Queue: 2 jobs
Job 1
Amino acid sequence: MKLAVIPGDGIGREVIPAALSVLDAFGLGIEKIPLDIGYGKWERTGSAITNEDMDIISECDCVLFGAITTPPDPNYKSVLMRLRKELDLYANIRPFVPLKSIRLPCDTKEFDFVIVRENTEGMYSGVEELHEDVAYTTRVITRAGSERIAERACILAKSRKKHITIVHKANVLKSCSFFRDVCIGSAQRNGISHREMLMDAMAYDLILHPERYDVIVTTNLFGDILSDVAAAIAGGLGLCPSANIGERYALFEPIHGSAPDIAGKGIANPIAAILSVKMMLEWGGWVEEANSITKAVNSVLCDRITTPDLGGSYSTTDVSAAIAKLI
């Protein structure tokens, strides 16, 4: 397998090397192709990602991605949105399961749900107009886009509890009615039971009762918001991985941002990036190795080898080295 490695900006340059040290512990012989992409490159060259970068990435099987700083500059184009669109990474998969010994803000300690987020259209379609007195962002919801994310959710549900929750705002948005109806049709064709939740009610209930949910399917913006809500429930952004999946390519990344306030201090939590490597190994067929990462992470957490965000005093590399040693 050929892996494009994009540390990006900020703490991405710390957590991705840490995650790679865990990957290297397996000795799988994965070919790693490092790429300098992101805000730092944009500051130096005027381009965060070039066509040549995309050519190299398209020759790889998947991407391990750190974090990108996005400045408030209208001339800056989102790297992640370009990667998702050009590689057609239409499904954003974010699993949420509590890790051992992590203090959770909710009463229940037992939950296991996955947010399946449409990743290429919706409010992030890039169809926008900015004028002096008004701005427009067009929410694009297509049948093809809705069907394939619903099918992805149903495939996942078949391996779990054969049930999906469809999240929308069909009470006020016709585009949500369209998305909901397509998802219901997919569930019925696949023999998957379903229920519907309005986005605001879903955010409320997910905080109180995360154990009620299994596979959650929703649109781009709503999935983005719910993922951060879920991260808080699961113990923090530093613990949560994600996968961006397409028919040909995949990209794996921690869900946190570049965190410039702590960048360079060596205290960023590498576990989200390490668990993103776990998802990459699952995608690549190395299931046993992926499972060993989960075991090693839980063991290190139980030994209280944690970064300051979890109340510890260990560095980024201390944590990754402890996990790699167990592997």
Job 2
Amino acid sequence: MSEFSVRDFYDELARDYHLMFRDWDASVAYQAGVLGEFVRQGLGAGPQRVLDCSCGIGTQAIGLASAGHQVVGSDLSPAAAARAAAEAVARGSRLPAAAADMRRLPFADGAFDVIVCADNSLPHLLSGEDLRAALLGMRRVLRDDGLLMVTVRDYDEARRTRPTATPPQVSETSEGKVITFQLWHWHEDGERYDLEHFQLVPAASTWDVRVRRTTYWALTRSQLTEFVAGAGFTGITWHSPESSGYYQPVLTARRGGPGSGSVPPGKSG
């Protein structure tokens, strides 16, 4: 799909994104705790300069900012980036956030110690060319030996089982019980799929059904490892949910120095 389709998906979802969580603020704190520990182990207590280049409404960025890091957010969706900045202020924190395409990051070379790209954002890029452009841009804005953190779905399992839907999730919200689920429509190549994201929100005596559509590339760990290595990152390591406590597999890597090339695939955590 085009960048406009992805942008539209998240512009439309921005007002309702928190409804996917039973307690969004608790998720903000939990995710910042896990990702913050990766930062501490990799670079020290900091504070570190962090770019969340797919910040959405701030699920990772707000917690990292509240922990004392100097966080900047960017997102393809102007609506999501604006909400992230507002939600941070409402929680007594500060998160400068702007609309920006991760393939063309508008930041200076070496401006950050850490790049975060979470919530399965990278697989919205549907070609090798776009994926390379994004990863090379992330490397450019990282300082030497800076830390990259990417979280994605477990697509090794998904490619094996080819799911067609996710189980409905029921969240208790201020609007009542909200039901969220997805339908997956796999392409003939067996790697990409169109996703329909459904939210059923109580409305008087009926339901307001909200549907958004987008496309993903179900990148396996070996595929993503190869792209990350090809962009000049080193020390590539995968961390499973069982080992990290995070809800998705996490890839960590370091910005290699000048002339860095491909490295062997990283291990699975």
